[in-house]
Amino acid sequence: MGAQLIDGKLISTQIKDELKEKTDKLVAEGKRVPTLAVILVGADPASQVYVRNKKKACEYIGYKSLSYELDEHITQDELLELIDKLNKDEEVDGILVQMPVPKHIDDKAVIEAIDPGKDVDGFHPMNVGALCTGEKGFVSCTPAGIIQLLKRSNVDISGKECVIVGRSNIVGKPMMMLMLRENATVTVTHSRTKDIAEVCKRADILIVAIGKARFVTKDFVKEGAVVIDVGINRNAETGKLCGDVAFDEVSEIASMITPVPGGVGPMTIAMLMNNCFEAYEMHEANR
Ligand code: GUN
Protein backbone atom coordinates (compact mmCIF):
# COMPACT_ATOMS: atom_id res chain seq x y z
CA MET A 1 0.00 0.00 0.00
CA GLY A 2 1.35 3.42 -0.99
CA ALA A 3 -0.93 5.74 0.93
CA GLN A 4 -0.30 7.07 4.41
CA LEU A 5 -3.11 6.13 6.82
CA ILE A 6 -5.00 8.96 8.47
CA ASP A 7 -5.57 7.59 11.97
CA GLY A 8 -8.94 8.86 13.17
CA LYS A 9 -8.78 6.87 16.35
CA LEU A 10 -5.52 8.58 17.35
CA ILE A 11 -6.65 12.08 16.31
CA SER A 12 -10.03 11.70 18.04
CA THR A 13 -8.25 10.61 21.22
CA GLN A 14 -6.04 13.70 21.04
CA ILE A 15 -9.13 15.92 20.77
CA LYS A 16 -10.86 14.14 23.66
CA ASP A 17 -7.70 14.43 25.75
CA GLU A 18 -7.54 18.18 25.07
CA LEU A 19 -11.15 18.48 26.24
CA LYS A 20 -10.46 16.27 29.26
CA GLU A 21 -7.63 18.56 30.28
CA LYS A 22 -9.90 21.63 30.05
CA THR A 23 -12.64 19.81 31.99
CA ASP A 24 -10.21 18.66 34.70
CA LYS A 25 -9.26 22.30 35.10
CA LEU A 26 -12.91 23.27 35.63
CA VAL A 27 -13.25 20.57 38.29
CA ALA A 28 -10.05 21.75 40.01
CA GLU A 29 -11.50 25.28 40.09
CA GLY A 30 -14.75 23.97 41.59
CA LYS A 31 -16.78 24.98 38.53
CA ARG A 32 -19.74 23.31 36.87
CA VAL A 33 -18.79 20.83 34.09
CA PRO A 34 -20.37 20.63 30.59
CA THR A 35 -23.58 18.56 30.53
CA LEU A 36 -25.01 16.65 27.55
CA ALA A 37 -28.56 15.28 27.45
CA VAL A 38 -28.91 12.28 25.14
CA ILE A 39 -32.38 11.13 24.07
CA LEU A 40 -32.99 7.75 22.44
CA VAL A 41 -36.49 6.79 21.29
CA GLY A 42 -37.03 3.06 20.78
CA ALA A 43 -34.51 0.23 20.80
CA ASP A 44 -32.74 0.27 17.42
CA PRO A 45 -29.55 -1.72 18.10
CA ALA A 46 -27.26 0.54 16.02
CA SER A 47 -28.65 3.65 17.76
CA GLN A 48 -28.15 1.99 21.15
CA VAL A 49 -24.47 1.48 20.30
CA TYR A 50 -24.06 5.11 19.18
CA VAL A 51 -25.76 6.42 22.32
CA ARG A 52 -23.65 4.18 24.56
CA ASN A 53 -20.49 5.47 22.85
CA LYS A 54 -21.58 9.09 23.33
CA LYS A 55 -22.18 8.47 27.04
CA LYS A 56 -18.80 6.71 27.34
CA ALA A 57 -17.06 9.70 25.70
CA CYS A 58 -18.72 12.02 28.27
CA GLU A 59 -17.47 9.80 31.09
CA TYR A 60 -13.95 9.73 29.64
CA ILE A 61 -13.72 13.51 29.38
CA GLY A 62 -15.52 14.22 32.64
CA TYR A 63 -18.75 15.74 31.33
CA LYS A 64 -22.03 15.01 33.01
CA SER A 65 -24.40 13.05 30.76
CA LEU A 66 -28.14 12.75 31.20
CA SER A 67 -29.72 9.81 29.47
CA TYR A 68 -33.36 9.50 28.37
CA GLU A 69 -34.27 6.13 26.90
CA LEU A 70 -37.86 6.42 25.80
CA ASP A 71 -40.37 3.80 24.71
CA GLU A 72 -40.79 3.69 20.93
CA HIS A 73 -44.52 4.43 21.35
CA ILE A 74 -43.99 7.77 23.10
CA THR A 75 -46.01 10.54 21.42
CA GLN A 76 -44.41 13.40 19.59
CA ASP A 77 -45.89 15.84 22.12
CA GLU A 78 -44.31 13.95 25.01
CA LEU A 79 -40.92 14.07 23.28
CA LEU A 80 -41.31 17.80 22.53
CA GLU A 81 -42.22 18.40 26.19
CA LEU A 82 -39.01 16.72 27.32
CA ILE A 83 -36.99 18.83 24.85
CA ASP A 84 -38.71 21.97 26.15
CA LYS A 85 -37.84 21.03 29.73
CA LEU A 86 -34.18 20.47 28.76
CA ASN A 87 -34.12 23.73 26.77
CA LYS A 88 -35.12 25.57 29.94
CA ASP A 89 -32.72 23.67 32.23
CA GLU A 90 -29.71 25.92 32.86
CA GLU A 91 -27.60 22.92 33.84
CA VAL A 92 -27.96 21.38 30.35
CA ASP A 93 -25.53 22.60 27.68
CA GLY A 94 -26.20 20.20 24.82
CA ILE A 95 -29.28 18.24 23.71
CA LEU A 96 -29.07 15.38 21.25
CA VAL A 97 -31.92 13.25 19.92
CA GLN A 98 -30.46 10.15 18.30
CA MET A 99 -31.73 9.76 14.76
CA PRO A 100 -33.65 8.09 13.23
CA VAL A 101 -36.78 8.52 15.42
CA PRO A 102 -39.80 6.18 14.91
CA LYS A 103 -41.97 6.93 11.87
CA HIS A 104 -44.88 8.48 13.80
CA ILE A 105 -42.56 11.27 15.00
CA ASP A 106 -41.65 14.14 12.66
CA ASP A 107 -37.87 14.45 12.86
CA LYS A 108 -37.98 17.99 11.48
CA ALA A 109 -40.27 19.11 14.32
CA VAL A 110 -37.91 17.47 16.83
CA ILE A 111 -34.81 19.17 15.42
CA GLU A 112 -36.54 22.56 15.29
CA ALA A 113 -37.70 22.20 18.91
CA ILE A 114 -34.13 22.08 20.22
CA ASP A 115 -32.73 25.44 21.38
CA PRO A 116 -30.16 26.31 18.62
CA GLY A 117 -27.70 27.20 21.40
CA LYS A 118 -27.95 23.61 22.69
CA ASP A 119 -28.08 21.93 19.27
CA VAL A 120 -24.67 20.23 19.51
CA ASP A 121 -25.49 18.06 16.45
CA GLY A 122 -25.70 21.24 14.33
CA PHE A 123 -28.94 20.07 12.71
CA HIS A 124 -31.17 23.08 13.54
CA PRO A 125 -31.93 25.33 10.52
CA MET A 126 -30.45 28.30 12.45
CA ASN A 127 -27.11 26.51 12.71
CA VAL A 128 -27.28 25.29 9.11
CA GLY A 129 -27.98 28.88 8.02
CA ALA A 130 -25.11 30.21 10.14
CA LEU A 131 -22.76 27.76 8.44
CA CYS A 132 -23.87 29.01 5.01
CA THR A 133 -23.35 32.67 5.85
CA GLY A 134 -20.14 32.07 7.81
CA GLU A 135 -21.56 33.11 11.18
CA LYS A 136 -20.88 31.39 14.49
CA GLY A 137 -22.92 28.28 15.17
CA PHE A 138 -22.70 24.55 15.72
CA VAL A 139 -21.44 22.51 12.77
CA SER A 140 -22.59 18.96 12.03
CA CYS A 141 -20.07 16.68 13.76
CA THR A 142 -18.94 14.36 10.95
CA PRO A 143 -17.96 17.12 8.48
CA ALA A 144 -16.36 19.13 11.29
CA GLY A 145 -14.38 16.00 12.18
CA ILE A 146 -13.17 15.61 8.60
CA ILE A 147 -11.78 19.17 8.64
CA GLN A 148 -9.89 18.27 11.83
CA LEU A 149 -8.55 15.06 10.25
CA LEU A 150 -7.23 17.04 7.28
CA LYS A 151 -5.77 19.89 9.34
CA ARG A 152 -4.13 17.66 11.93
CA SER A 153 -2.62 15.56 9.10
CA ASN A 154 -1.17 18.77 7.59
CA VAL A 155 -3.23 18.54 4.38
CA ASP A 156 -3.37 21.92 2.65
CA ILE A 157 -6.96 22.69 1.67
CA SER A 158 -6.75 26.21 0.25
CA GLY A 159 -6.94 26.31 -3.56
CA LYS A 160 -7.33 22.52 -3.84
CA GLU A 161 -9.91 20.68 -5.95
CA CYS A 162 -12.28 18.97 -3.53
CA VAL A 163 -14.91 16.53 -4.79
CA ILE A 164 -17.63 15.32 -2.41
CA VAL A 165 -19.65 12.21 -3.24
CA GLY A 166 -23.12 12.43 -1.64
CA ARG A 167 -25.37 15.38 -0.79
CA SER A 168 -26.97 14.49 2.54
CA ASN A 169 -27.95 17.17 5.03
CA ILE A 170 -25.68 15.77 7.72
CA VAL A 171 -22.51 15.14 5.67
CA GLY A 172 -22.39 16.18 1.98
CA LYS A 173 -23.99 19.63 2.21
CA PRO A 174 -22.26 20.90 5.38
CA MET A 175 -19.00 19.40 4.06
CA MET A 176 -19.40 21.52 0.95
CA MET A 177 -19.76 24.70 3.03
CA LEU A 178 -16.80 23.84 5.28
CA MET A 179 -14.46 23.09 2.38
CA LEU A 180 -15.55 26.32 0.73
CA ARG A 181 -14.80 28.17 3.98
CA GLU A 182 -11.29 26.63 3.82
CA ASN A 183 -10.93 28.06 0.29
CA ALA A 184 -11.14 24.78 -1.64
CA THR A 185 -12.80 24.62 -5.07
CA VAL A 186 -15.72 22.33 -4.33
CA THR A 187 -17.75 19.99 -6.52
CA VAL A 188 -20.61 17.92 -5.08
CA THR A 189 -21.52 14.73 -6.95
CA HIS A 190 -24.51 12.46 -6.36
CA SER A 191 -26.62 9.67 -7.85
CA ARG A 192 -27.57 11.73 -10.93
CA THR A 193 -24.05 12.93 -11.72
CA LYS A 194 -22.92 11.97 -15.22
CA ASP A 195 -19.47 10.38 -15.43
CA ILE A 196 -19.02 10.42 -11.67
CA ALA A 197 -15.66 8.61 -11.92
CA GLU A 198 -14.35 11.32 -14.26
CA VAL A 199 -15.46 14.11 -11.90
CA CYS A 200 -13.94 12.35 -8.88
CA LYS A 201 -10.68 11.93 -10.77
CA ARG A 202 -10.20 15.71 -10.69
CA ALA A 203 -10.03 15.71 -6.90
CA ASP A 204 -6.98 16.54 -4.84
CA ILE A 205 -9.21 15.78 -1.87
CA LEU A 206 -11.99 13.22 -2.38
CA ILE A 207 -14.64 12.87 0.34
CA VAL A 208 -17.02 9.93 -0.06
CA ALA A 209 -20.33 9.74 1.81
CA ILE A 210 -22.76 7.86 -0.38
CA GLY A 211 -23.53 4.77 1.71
CA LYS A 212 -22.61 2.14 -0.88
CA ALA A 213 -19.90 -0.39 -0.09
CA ARG A 214 -16.80 -0.12 -2.30
CA PHE A 215 -18.50 2.44 -4.58
CA VAL A 216 -15.25 4.33 -5.23
CA THR A 217 -12.71 2.17 -7.03
CA LYS A 218 -9.24 3.10 -8.28
CA ASP A 219 -10.78 4.40 -11.52
CA PHE A 220 -12.26 7.31 -9.50
CA VAL A 221 -8.99 8.45 -7.94
CA LYS A 222 -6.15 10.65 -9.18
CA GLU A 223 -2.63 9.56 -8.30
CA GLY A 224 -1.64 11.22 -5.02
CA ALA A 225 -5.17 12.28 -3.97
CA VAL A 226 -6.22 12.43 -0.31
CA VAL A 227 -9.22 10.11 0.15
CA ILE A 228 -11.67 10.43 3.04
CA ASP A 229 -14.13 7.54 3.43
CA VAL A 230 -17.25 8.37 5.46
CA GLY A 231 -19.06 5.09 4.68
CA ILE A 232 -19.93 2.53 7.32
CA ASN A 233 -21.33 -0.56 5.61
CA ARG A 234 -21.60 -4.00 7.13
CA ASN A 235 -20.81 -6.93 4.87
CA ALA A 236 -23.84 -9.26 5.15
CA GLU A 237 -21.72 -12.42 4.87
CA THR A 238 -18.64 -11.67 6.95
CA GLY A 239 -20.23 -9.13 9.32
CA LYS A 240 -17.15 -6.95 8.84
CA LEU A 241 -17.38 -3.17 8.45
CA CYS A 242 -16.29 -1.65 5.18
CA GLY A 243 -16.37 1.85 3.73
CA ASP A 244 -17.65 3.40 0.49
CA VAL A 245 -14.11 3.18 -0.92
CA ALA A 246 -12.43 0.02 -2.20
CA PHE A 247 -9.58 0.47 0.28
CA ASP A 248 -7.23 -2.21 -1.04
CA GLU A 249 -6.94 -0.83 -4.57
CA VAL A 250 -7.41 2.91 -3.80
CA SER A 251 -4.71 2.88 -1.12
CA GLU A 252 -2.25 1.88 -3.87
CA ILE A 253 -2.66 5.25 -5.65
CA ALA A 254 -3.84 7.73 -3.00
CA SER A 255 -1.26 9.70 -0.99
CA MET A 256 -3.36 9.55 2.20
CA ILE A 257 -6.49 7.60 3.09
CA THR A 258 -8.79 7.00 6.06
CA PRO A 259 -9.48 3.38 7.05
CA VAL A 260 -12.91 1.99 8.00
CA PRO A 261 -13.22 1.45 10.89
CA GLY A 262 -10.86 3.84 12.66
CA GLY A 263 -10.99 6.79 10.27
CA VAL A 264 -13.88 9.26 10.18
CA GLY A 265 -16.12 7.31 12.61
CA PRO A 266 -14.37 8.15 15.89
CA MET A 267 -14.10 11.81 14.86
CA THR A 268 -17.88 12.31 14.93
CA ILE A 269 -18.08 11.74 18.69
CA ALA A 270 -14.92 13.77 19.35
CA MET A 271 -16.49 16.75 17.55
CA LEU A 272 -19.77 16.26 19.40
CA MET A 273 -17.77 16.53 22.62
CA ASN A 274 -16.06 19.64 21.26
CA ASN A 275 -19.44 21.21 20.41
CA CYS A 276 -20.60 20.47 23.98
CA PHE A 277 -17.63 22.38 25.38
CA GLU A 278 -18.39 25.33 23.09
CA ALA A 279 -22.03 25.28 24.20
CA TYR A 280 -20.88 25.24 27.83
CA GLU A 281 -18.56 28.21 27.33
CA MET A 282 -21.33 30.15 25.58
CA HIS A 283 -23.81 29.42 28.39
CA GLU A 284 -21.31 30.37 31.08
CA ALA A 285 -20.43 33.61 29.27
CA ASN A 286 -24.14 34.54 29.08
CA ARG A 287 -24.98 33.92 32.71
N1 GUN B 1 -27.80 9.29 13.59
C1 GUN B 1 -26.77 9.06 12.74
N2 GUN B 1 -25.83 10.02 12.88
C2 GUN B 1 -26.28 10.86 13.84
C3 GUN B 1 -25.75 12.03 14.44
O1 GUN B 1 -24.66 12.52 14.10
N3 GUN B 1 -26.51 12.59 15.40
C4 GUN B 1 -27.71 12.10 15.78
N4 GUN B 1 -28.39 12.74 16.72
N5 GUN B 1 -28.23 11.01 15.25
C5 GUN B 1 -27.52 10.40 14.29
Residue runs with pLDDT of under 50 for 5 or more positions: none
CATH superfamily of the largest domain: NAD(P)-binding Rossmann-like Domain
Q: Kindly report how far apart the N and C termini lie.
A: 53 Å
Rg: 19 Å
Write the layout of secondary structure elements.
Elements: E1 4-5, H1 8-28, E2 35-41, H2 45-61, E3 64-70, H3 76-88, E4 94-97, H4 107-113, H5 125-133, H6 141-152, E5 161-165, H7 172-181, E6 185-189, H8 196-200, E7 205-208, E8 226-229, E9 233-234, E10 241-242, H9 247-250, E11 256-257, H10 265-285
Parallel strand pairs: 1-11, 2-3, 2-4, 5-6, 5-7, 7-8, 8-11
Antiparallel strand pairs: 9-10
Helix pairs in contact: 1-10, 2-10, 6-7, 6-10
The structure holds guanine.
Guanine binds at residues 96-99, 121, 141, 268.
